[in-house]
Structures are given as structure tokens and as C-alpha cells.
Amino acid sequence: MDENTWGDEFENCSSPPFPGKLTTPRTLAQKLLQSYVWVEENMQFANEIAEAANCPTQPFVRLPNLSSPTYDKEDALLNVSVPSLYRSWSALRVVRERWDWIYRNFEEDWTNQKCQLHRMMCIKALSVVLETAFLPPEVLEAREEKEKEEEREHLRKALKDLNIPDTLLAALGISPEDAEEEVDFDSLFHGRDEDDE
């Protein structure tokens, strides 16, 4: 078994990368690429645990396509916004701190079901970080807007399945699918004027 994979033996585990306080965009890019390799090596384990736990999406852990030559360069993050850099840096640190917690608490029982779920979630967390870590601000913003719209549509459908009336959906700011008009928030909070009637 490769030294960078866990398997079920405690001795065969490796830790995800940890960016220090003096991390630059270049070293953060290196840490993210190391994270990609770490997730790739442990993805099969995570997906097997996710399937056994009946996680909703299969495969549970996915990796973005980083085959573009941009990702191999040291300056891959120079077009990424500062908040995105900070989010990636923070997330890598949090995952590593969580990993160290798992390592300390389950050292004697590495195959424990709780331990396996915690390990799976560390891998999932890093894969989610990698999905957006290298995106320029405009691409990230467009993706976030699309995800918000998908979430809004999912919520609207869930509320419609609960037989919530269209008027309440409109008051919540969730328009029914066939409604084109905007919600009049003034009338919601201040009532209607006599002139409007």
C-alpha cells in the first residue's frame, strides 16, 4: 500500500497539506495541488464510506478537472481574488486541524465508524475547496449566482410540494414558476393605500 493512502492501517495514513502563516499565493498554489493529489489518493475510500452511509450524491467526492496548463504554474493564483485566496488558505488549515483531531482521538481505533466518517468528510471538504480555489473572480461570481438560483428553485419546489400557496411564496420572495411580476414589498409591510384600490 502506498505511504500516502490510509487503508485501514493507522501506519499507512498521511495528512493533508497545511499552509503556514507566511504562505504566499505561489506556496498556496503548491499546497492546493498537493491537496488535489491527497484527495485523489483517498477518494476511493471516501466514496466507499459515503455509499455505505447512504450519502445522497454518488460519487460523494469529486475532483475538478485541473488538466489546464495554468494549474501547473507557480502563479496559478495570481488572477484569484484576495477573499478567495483567504477562503482557500483558511479551509486548508481547518481541514488539517480537523485531521489532526481525528488522528489524536482515533489513534487506537482507526477503523471506527465515526473515525471513517470524519476522514470521509475531510476528503470531501478539500474536494469542495478545490472546486473554486483556482477560479478568477468573474467565473466564481457567475457560478455562485447560478448556484443561488438553483437553490432558490429547489426551495420553491419543496415549498410547493408542501402545498404552500403562491401568495405566501410571493411574500417570501420566492415567486411561483409561472409568475412574472415582482413582489411589491411596500404593500407587504405598509399595507395598501386607498389610492391603489
What is shown here, in short?
This protein is mostly helical. The chain has 6 helices and no strands. It starts with about 25 loop residues before the first helix and ends in a 7-residue tail after the last helix.
Layout of strands and helices, then pairs:
Layout: H1 25-52, H2 82-105, H3 113-132, H4 137-161, H5 166-171, H6 185-190
Helix pairs in contact: 1-2, 1-3, 2-3
Report on the structure:
It contains six helices and no strands. It is mostly helical and 197 residues long. The chain has two domains: 10-135, no CATH class; 149-196, no CATH class. The radius of gyration is 23 Å and the shape is globular. Residues 1-7 have low confidence and may be disordered.
Rg, please?
Answer: 23 Å
Task: Give the biggest sheet.
Answer: none
- Ends distance: 77 Å
Report mean pLDDT, rounded to a whole number.
Answer: 80
- Domain count: the total is 2
Helix percent band: 55-70%
Pairing-aware structural class of the strands and helices?
Answer: mainly alpha
What shape does the CA trace take?
A: globular
For the structure shown, list the relevant keywords.
disordered N terminus; mainly alpha
